[in-house]
């Protein structure tokens, strides 16, 4: 699959997830073979106001490339000014992704994200503007529409293609559906059928079976994985192997998962400092520990992590609970 000059191997891309896919997580997923990563979304308005946090969110490390940066906003003038600023903060970016799918009231409520699916003329102007000022390829990430009465992703995809977008990513739900009903694979296939540029399918891909099924049923060029990678960054290695027809790598044993968790937490703390880092790491710890014996108690401990030392104690506690259960014969040693 090709976006601009970048040729991507078979596999899955890491979905942008605000508050989750920071530099540490992106690099980790990339190390397991995510074909590309995407920054957390950043406001074009924020960038034009010189917001320091927005610029920091765009910074890309060498170990997470190829990576896209994702921007959101509903004002074409802001897009015009913000793109060169964004590229100053992320000179290694492979392409720029426009967020037209975020359902969050804070974003969609002020006209950005998925709200652009209610105004295709404005969406088209934004894509044209971005393409005209960006030296890099521009992609668009969308949902199937705003709600059941406005399922217009195929129209938006065509508009994007005509405006010069290099690829489309489509999450197979409407804005109104948020994240819960099963993804509408036929809806994604309808977008694929409408355009000739690459289409990346997104929604509910959690392993090699769901990735293969998504590609087979939609005819899309690539899959993108979001929640399926939480606490499971090795999912990218599994999907890549399946798509290349290679034997699936062994799923990391529980002990190994705990080591991956600890190293991930250490990296977050190295990047952000221990005070901020450990607080952001709490949710990751809870995702890694899902399915471990005593998970409910461990989850509570995750919420109270205050230092890397606490994370090491949490690892040891999870290990001893596991060993105790193995001794009792009530835990089979795999998750
Ligand atoms: C916590 C969270 C944050 C997200 N943030 C973004 C974002 O910043 N930009 C975006 O385009 N999508 C965002 N999404 C949507 C995901 O990229 C993806 O489209 C969605 O989760 C469906 O894919 P999945 O079923 O593989 O998770 C977010 C999703 C979650 C769960």
Please characterize this protein's 3D structure:
The longest helix is centred in the last third of the chain and has 21 residues. This protein has 2 domains: 242 residues, TIM Barrel, CATH 3.20.20.70; 75 residues, Non-ribosomal Peptide Synthetase Peptidyl Carrier Protein, Chain A, CATH 1.10.1200. The protein contains 14 helices and 11 strands. Helix 4 packs parallel to helix 6, helix 6 packs parallel to helix 7 and helix 11 runs antiparallel to helix 12. The strands form 2 sheets. Strands 3, 4, 5, 6, 7, 8, 9, 10 and 11 form a 9-stranded parallel β-sheet that branches. A two-stranded antiparallel sheet has the order 1-2. By secondary structure, it is an alpha/beta fold. The structure holds flavin mononucleotide. The site of flavin mononucleotide (FMN) has 22 residues, from loops.
Ions, cofactors and other bound molecules: flavin mononucleotide
Per CATH, the architecture of the largest domain is Alpha-Beta Barrel
Percent helix range: 40-55%
By DSSP, the count of extended strands is: 11
Subunit organisation of the chains: single chain
Gross morphology is globular
Total number of helices: 14
In short:
This protein has 335 residues and is of the alpha/beta class.
Helices and strands in order, then pairings?
Layout: E1 2-3, E2 6-7, E3 12-14, H1 23-31, E4 37-38, E5 42-43, H2 44-48, H3 52-58, E6 67-72, H4 76-89, E7 95-100, H5 105-108, H6 120-133, E8 138-142, H7 153-162, E9 167-171, H8 185-194, E10 199-202, H9 208-218, E11 222-225, H10 235-243, H11 254-272, H12 274-289, H13 295-303, H14 308-328
Parallel strand pairs: 3-11, 4-6, 5-6, 6-7, 7-8, 8-9, 9-10, 10-11
Antiparallel strand pairs: 1-2
Helix pairs in contact: 1-11, 4-6, 6-7, 7-8, 9-10, 11-12, 11-14, 12-13, 13-14
């Amino acid at each position: 699959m090709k976006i601009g000059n970048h040729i991507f191997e078979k596999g899955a891309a890491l979905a942008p997830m605000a508050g989750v896919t920071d530099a540490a997580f992106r690099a980790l997923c990339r190390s397991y073979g995510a074909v590309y990563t995407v920054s957390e979304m950043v406001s074009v308005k924020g960038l034009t106001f010189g917001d320091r946090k927005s610029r920091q969110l765009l910074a890309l490390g060498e170990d997470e490339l190829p990576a896209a940066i994702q921007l959101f906003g509903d004002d074409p003038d802001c897009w015009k000014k913000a793109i060169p600023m964004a590229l100053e903060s992320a000179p290694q970016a492979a392409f720029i992704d426009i967020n037209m799918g975020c359902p969050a009231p804070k974003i969609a409520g002020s006209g950005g994200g998925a709200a652009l699916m209610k105004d295709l003329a404005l969406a088209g102007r934004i894509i044209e503007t971005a393409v005209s000022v960006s030296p890099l390829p521009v992609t668009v990430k969308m949902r199937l529409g705003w709600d059941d009465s406005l399922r217009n992703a195929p129209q938006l995809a065509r508009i994007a293609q005509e405006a010069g977008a290099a690829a489309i990513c489509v999450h197979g739900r409407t804005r109104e559906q948020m994240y819960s009903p099963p993804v509408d694979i036929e809806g994604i296939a309808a977008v694929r059928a409408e355009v000739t540029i690459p289409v990346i399918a997104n929604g509910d891909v959690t392993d090699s079976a769901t990735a293969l099924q998504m590609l087979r049923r939609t005819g899309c060029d690539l899959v993108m994985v979001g929640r399926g990678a939480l606490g499971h960054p090795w999912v990218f290695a599994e999907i890549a192997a399946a798509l290349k027809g290679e034997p699936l790598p062994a799923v990391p044993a529980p002990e190994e998962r705990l080591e991956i968790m600890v190293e991930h937490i250490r990296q977050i703390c190295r990047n952000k400092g221990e005070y901020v880092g450990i607080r952001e790491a709490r949710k990751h710890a809870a995702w890694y520990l899902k399915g471990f014996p005593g998970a409910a108690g461990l989850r509570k401990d995750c919420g109270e992590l205050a230092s890397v030392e606490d994370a090491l104690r949490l690892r040891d506690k999870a290990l001893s609970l596991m060993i105790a259960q193995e001794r009792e014969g009530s835990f089979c040693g795999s998750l």
